[in-house]
Amino acid sequence: MKTILLKVKIIVSVFIILGTAQTQTISTFESLNLGTNNYWNGKDFSGGFNNGNAFFVNHFDTSFGDYWEGFAASTTTNDTTKSYTNQYSAVTGKGYNNSNTYAVNYGGGKILLKGAAQGKVVMGFYITNSTYSYYGMKNGTSISKKFGDSTGNYPDFFKIVISGWKDAGTPTDTVEFYLADYRFSDNSKDYIVKNWQWLDLSKLGNMDSLSFNYHSSDTGMYGINNPQYFCMDNFTTRDIKSGLSNTDNKIIFSLYPNPANDILHLSLNQINGTVKIFNLQGELLISDSNHDVNISSLKPGIYCVEVRTEEAIAVQKFIKQ
To answer: What is the predicted pLDDT for the residue at 268?
Structure first.
């Protein structure tokens, strides 16, 4: 029986990397120093907060009592209280990977990229439901329905639509994420998100800002009925432009086998090059100067291989079996 190796060969026109700038930045929100079981909701009228290479926009208003929308930050851990009084807690009870601090979105809003991330790619972030929104969909509230109805057959859904923007208002693309989905013909597949999940935003391309808009099957005269929240952690910017330029510098970059189990072989048209392997969250896992890279320690999944020379960089994805 022959073993067929899938060999992918790509000629990539690449761009010159200036200086030694960091290529990815993660907003973990820990540096906000909120303390234990606390939250920030914009009551200081600062209009938002900086973290990593991003500004998370917040609107706070006291015209008819305290009201906020956009992004808040939280260290609260209440994963059981189902009411509006628990609007700042993630249903997981903690941030991603048991971290202390995470962001909470209410009603949509914007994130503005800054510094090295402005005009560049956002790799993505971890997302989950808030406790209030999770139980609001699971059980219903005084103004919203139980998703699926009593039969479980109604095709309810709740999703967030994220749009990329550049050059003062030009859209790039959109990404949708279903925080709950009951549209399956097989009711056993219906779900409400209750754990941290990675949301890949790389398809949005180079951008300056992101906008967030909710869509739901449970709507009425005044819009969406179910609680409009999601929680975010590890917002990751790549800080490098996508796309091609500088066509005089080319890297011929082959890798095989793909998928791979133990050793990933790389073939380059340039002798000297550093090989780095990242996961889709931008975390560096392997750095090697050899072109036969031992990947046996990696978990099964999709990874990015970055080949860097003194003047250029090229990236491909591969599958670890």
So the answer is: 66
Q: Which residues contact 266 (CB under 8 A, 6 or more apart)?
A: 253, 254, 255, 275, 291, 292, 293, 305, 307
Q: In which order are the strands placed within the sheet that holds 250-256?
A: 8-13, 250-256, 263-268, 292-294
**Domain boundaries along the sequence of the chain:** 8-16+246-320, 25-237
CATH class of 25-237: mainly beta
Average of pLDDT values for 98-126?
Answer: 95
Instruction: Give the span between the Cα atoms of 212 and 199, in whole angstroms.
Output: 13
pTM of the full structure: 0.72
CA angle 47, 208, 277 (to 5 degrees): 115
Q: Which CATH class is domain 8-16+246-320?
A: mainly beta
Buried b (16+ CB within 10 A) or exposed e, 224-236: bbbbbbbbbbbbb
Rounded to whole angstroms, the maximal C-alpha distance in the chain is 75
Residue 100 predicted with pLDDT over 90: yes
Computed on alpha carbons and rounded to an integer, the radius of gyration of the chain in Å comes to 22
34 Rama class: left (phi>0) / alpha (psi -120 to 50) / beta? alpha
Instruction: Report pLDDT for 269.
Output: 58
What's residue 59's pLDDT?
97
- Judge whether residue 24 has pLDDT over 90: no
Nearest to 208 by CA among 155, 164, 157, 244: 164
Q: Is the pLDDT of residue 40 over 60?
A: yes
